[in-house]
Amino acid sequence: TSADPLVFSIIAGLMLAARRPGAVPVWGERNREEVGFIAAARVLGIPRVFVAHAYPTPFSPPLDFTLSILEGEQAAAARRLKGPITGEVLLVGMEGESARLDPRRIERANPVIGIFPPKAPSWKALAAIVRGCRAHYRARRFVVRWHPSMLETPRLAHRLADRTGVEEYPGSARFHDVARQCDWVIAAENSNVHLPLLKLGIPTVAVKGLGLYPRNRSDLYGFIEHGIVLPPVDSIRDLRADDVAAFFSDCWVTKFKDYDASYLLPPGAIENDVRRAIHRVLSDAPAEVT
Q1: Where are the beta strands (DSSP E) in the chain?
Q2: Taking a C-beta distance cutoff of 8 angstroms, is the pair 206, 224 a contact?
């Protein structure tokens, strides 16, 4: 586990040379195992397929793959800011079903409010959010879904004396099953979780200070800057239902399709495009550069 990418590349090269797969798929481009396999496949002339699993940040490297399968136009644009994309690009959207967003869910009486903290949450802010939602929204239940890569063991009990109605789910819990319990969800400014929630038609709210990161990285994905996530509030009591309704009514579907190419399409609508693209890779047919 302490080996560097060069060692992984050598090991990967030996494995790939022995097996000669038709292609090498990866879901990331920065951890050392994947970097090793990518480098080895490139040297051996084996096609490389990148399947996006998280929205890019300013730290994401340029894409140099035979085929890059991305979420939407905005993801491709964000990648191109880092450099030219080599090879074919296919926009397939995010995984799972989608639904039209109903901003008035935020006005439901005694709501079930989801709280999806980042990997490094502020426990003080998290406890304040629960107390604020009880006081201002009369929330009957809270669904807390911990980040799959939490940097420490969840310890909400140390900060919140009254945990009545608070249900905690580990990051390993099935995301859609947890999310669908919620009328609306609170997340950090710098969270990738907004997109899959919005795809499900669930309004999300960003609260300042929920995540422990520098202020200059509070919108790392650019969701707030580009108007796909509501401007963050200092406190949950600052949230206004009319502002939420107006935000999500302004050409919302068109905006979101730039982030999720499959938004509101029927199940399986893009599957044939994926099959054809993979077939081109495996048959080593020339691919058109997007």
Answers
A1: 24-26, 48-51, 64-70, 86-91, 112-116, 141-145, 166-169, 184-187, 204-206
A2: yes
207 by DSSP, 3-state: which?
Answer: strand
Question: pTM score, two decimals?
Answer: 0.88
Quick check: helix, strand or coil at residue 32?
A: helix
**Residue 181 DSSP class:** T
Band (pLDDT 50/70/90 cuts) for residue 53 is confident
Q: What is the distance between the terminal CA atoms of the chain, rounded to a whole angstrom?
A: 37
CA 36 to chain centre: 24
Tell me the C-alpha distance between 269 and 241, whole Å.
34
Residue whose C-alpha is closest to residue 100's, from 194, 179, 176, 202: 202
- Measured distance CA(149)–CA(146) in Å, rounded: 8
Give the separation between CA 141 and CA 110, rounded to whole angstroms: 8
pLDDT surpassing 80 at residue 202: yes
d(CA 219, CA 143): 24
Q: What CA–CA distance (Å, rounded) separates 220 from 17?
A: 39
Residue 210 CA to residue 214 CA, distance in Å, equals 12
Q: What is the pLDDT of residues 88-142, one digit of tens each?
A: 999 999 988 999 999 999 999 999 999 999 999 999 999 999 999 999 999 999 9
d(CA 207, CA 188): 6
Q: Please list the residues that pair with 205 across neighbouring strands.
A: 186
